[in-house]
Amino acid sequence: MPGARSRGLRVVAHSASVVLISLLLASPLEAYTVYVTNQGESTLSIIDGGAKRVLRTVKLSHAEPYHAVLAEGNARLYIAHGGSGSVAIFDTASETEVAVIPTDGCPHGIALSPDGRQLWAAHAKADTVSVVDLAARKVVRTVRAGGRPLGVVFTLDGRKAYVANGGTADVYVIDTASGTVAKRLMASKGFLGMALTPDGKELWVTEDAGGVVSVIDTAEDESVAEIPVGTGARGIAISPDGRTAYVAVREERLVAVVDVRGRRVIARIAVSAPPDGASLSPDGRELWLASPRAQAVEVLDTATRAPVATIRVGTTARPDPHGLVISE
Asked: Do the bridges between strand 222-228 and strand 212-217 make them parallel or antiparallel, or are there none, so unpaired?
């Protein structure tokens, strides 16, 4: 019965296709690497993002590493050292420091310009931002910022940089060509975390004491919304599709999940320790949180909103994990 046999073969082939699709949908997360700067012991923990385990912890030559940023196709990690007033260049292949660039004061937050030519470092104690020429490996300009600048974010075209000032509780808009302050935004309470939406149209800024996230329209440089998230709003990460923001709310020991378009909190995820920094895996399926009080990082599944792992970092009793960077 050729017809029956043909139908049977089609059924088998269809079933095999269903199984293959199911396997693909259930495929494991892509491999990626997580770098955690341990301020308290001046080390860098290197974590296998898939296996959720520390591969190595590298001793750094300079003190108090704060934030870091990856560049050159993940080949270089630039690390701001607040205790030494410098930015170190870390080669990720050899896992060694290859250069140290002296900067002004106490570098805290750093950002890479979209063209990859400059690194801007915000100095929390000097109230300035150092502009580093990466080819020359030296500071070529110092920009005056507000009180206690903590972070820098560039617009997608690189024409403007936003500097969050924790001391004066405002955001400066810097014209990157001239290095001058074009505008001062939103005097409020304790700005700390910043994240640009993937389309570059909005900048989301956390207010620590105010317990809100302020939304800035980057075309007009105006605050267009305030979203209550909870006391101690710190780090923030926005999903690759731009639909969801995740805010680490330290004092309430939770992550606020925010609908970006609707501008409202849609979930609150309790975590085991007060979270600080927040970063997403490249595919957005996992949220990583730095928890200085727990001396660890915590990983959440963004689909189920359930904890995946807690990973102890550092080599001493109090490593104080601060910065958290994930390879692309």
From this structure: antiparallel
